Sequence to fold (100 residues):
Amino acid sequence: MIKSGRNGKNNGKGYYIYERGSKPKPDPQVFPILEEARRQVNIMPGGKPINITDQEVVEMILFAVVNEACQVEKLLSIFSYKYLQLQVQYVQNICSKHLF
Fold:
């Protein structure tokens, strides 16, 4: 991105086109750059993007929070079921506001 002169807000071009007085808009000229980067690092199996449902995204976030709560319990030996419940509720609140 930087090699192609895309320095973000500094020069008005990056992943988005920045114009004064308006919201940043996705720059379609970036798509070939992203595709080449994906190809080079072989992120997408078979060169095709994977499909992830909203539910899978929520589960990935929730599992990370549960894992972190378990690490806290293991390291500090102060695990509380209530703490875990609060963490789960927190993630559910965030997900319900932003994903659905």
User: Anything to note?
Assistant: Helices lie at 31-41, 54-76, 81-98. Residues 57 and 69 are 19 Å apart (CA to CA). The chain has three helices and two strands. The mean pLDDT is 79.
